[in-house]
């Protein structure tokens, strides 16, 4: 009988595809990739806000996973299936698959991302996601007074999408800090100027006082009260209050592997920092690395992890040490505006529109074309 293949199990398709592209042809014949994705499809969060506002954009943020591995490929796709826990030998999933419900691994990569409010995180595992995005588009079209709670990149980009498309709506952004996207990013002045020019009302250094009482989404007009006593009326309240890294798998394995920041502790090879888990990598939003949690940095993790996976699969040690790069953040303000931070430099609308025109959905769609 042929020797059983060893599994390189990857949990989460979104940020891990660069790793898969790098290793799928280079892995020794003794190994195969087993990609476990909770959804029935691939999803692209960087363009999800526009997909919740602009008709037809729901098609740009969803892609089929079915042809990533060819019919004759030894690599395996398991979609519509959630990883529910793991140990030092296997990953347990929530349903019986072609490999069973307890999938052994030689190497494991956790790329579970962050939990966002819809639409940046899908609210369904099925292809009904497109219908849900269309419903959101219709609700924004009907709304007259929109309040966005949170002035990070999500809040800024949603305000830009709405103000650019709907000049007749009242759009207010409430931010608890004094700088949009945070002082450390250094893009506040440019973003504030562009949003104000588009007609957005920006309320800074204010928190929503009745946050526990309000219902997010579309509905009857209701009142938002800020900490200074301001009262804002809204028939659509959008939650842009940031993200929560999805560290539950590691937390369930061992609570002490979660840092004070709520992130997974990793060593300089991006291996989970535990002597029990010498062949388990983590990447993207969930890792405790001193850098911004961005799509760019997740891509940066990929090249290091791919090299180290190939080393482990051929009997060598993981030796490529991760080093952070320059600060890079691009924030779109609609299709024509935005701002970019690149190291110590910042650029305005002409550079921001480089992201805003397509939101890189063309790259996303190409990512899921057949690899074999």
Automatic annotation (TrEMBL):
Q: Where is the FAD/NAD(P)-binding domain?
A: 7-300
Give the UniProt keywords, A-Z. Answer: FAD, Flavoprotein, Oxidoreductase
Q: Which Gene3D superfamilies match?
A: 3.50.50.100
Q: Which GO terms describe its cellular component?
A: cytoplasm
Q: Which GO terms describe its molecular function?
A: electron-transferring-flavoprotein dehydrogenase activity; flavin adenine dinucleotide binding
One Pfam annotation, family name? Pyr_redox_2
Recorded superkingdom: Eukaryota
- InterPro entries to which the protein is assigned, alphabetical: FAD/NAD-bd_sf, FAD/NAD-binding_dom
Q: Which family does it belong to?
A: Belongs to the FAD-dependent oxidoreductase family.
Q: What is this protein called?
A: FAD/NAD(P)-binding domain-containing protein
In its UniProt entry, the species of origin is given as Wallemia mellicola
Classification of source organism: Eukaryota, Fungi, Dikarya, Basidiomycota, Wallemiomycotina
């Amino acid at each position: 009988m042929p020797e059983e293949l060893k599994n390189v199990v990857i949990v989460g398709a979104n940020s891990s595809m660069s790793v898969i592209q790098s290793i799928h042809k280079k892995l020794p014949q003794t190994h195969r990739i087993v990609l476990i994705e909770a959804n029935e499809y691939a999803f692209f969060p960087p363009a999800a806000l526009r997909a919740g506002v602009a008709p037809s954009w729901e098609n740009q943020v969803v892609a089929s996973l079915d042809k990533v591995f060819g019919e004759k490929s030894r690599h395996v796709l398991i979609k519509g299936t959630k990883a529910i826990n793991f140990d030092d030998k296997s990953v347990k999933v929530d349903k019986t698959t072609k490999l069973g419900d307890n999938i052994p691994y030689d190497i494991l990569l956790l790329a579970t991302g962050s939990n966002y409010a819809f639409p940046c995180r899908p609210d369904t595992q099925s292809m009904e996601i497109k219908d849900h995005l269309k419903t959101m588009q219709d609700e924004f079209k009907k709304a007259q007074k929109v309040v966005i709670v949170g002035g990070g990149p999500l809040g800024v980009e949603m305000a830009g999408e709405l103000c650019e498309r709907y000049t007749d709506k009242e759009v207010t952004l409430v931010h608890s800090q004094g700088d949009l996207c945070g002082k450390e990013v250094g893009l506040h002045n440019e973003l504030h100027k562009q949003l104000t020019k588009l007609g957005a009302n920006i309320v800074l250094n204010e928190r929503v006082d009745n946050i526990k009482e309000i219902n997010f989404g579309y509905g009857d007009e209701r009142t938002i009260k800020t900490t200074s006593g301001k009262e804002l009326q809204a028939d659509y309240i959008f939650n842009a209050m940031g993200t929560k890294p999805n560290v539950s798998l590691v937390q369930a394995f061992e609570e002490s592997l979660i840092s004070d920041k709520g992130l997974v502790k990793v060593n300089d090879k991006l291996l989970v920092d535990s002597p029990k888990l010498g062949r388990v990598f983590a990447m993207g939003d969930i890792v405790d690395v001193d850098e911004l949690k961005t799509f760019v940095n997740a891509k940066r993790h990929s090249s290091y992890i791919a090299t180290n996976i190939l080393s482990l699969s051929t009997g060598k040690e993981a030796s490529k040490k991760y080093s952070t790069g320059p600060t890079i953040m691009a924030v779109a303000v609609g299709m024509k505006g935005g701002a970019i931070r690149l190291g110590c430099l910042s650029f305005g609308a002409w550079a921001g529109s480089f992201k805003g025109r397509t939101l890189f959905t063309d790259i996303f769609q190409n990512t899921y074309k057949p690899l074999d």
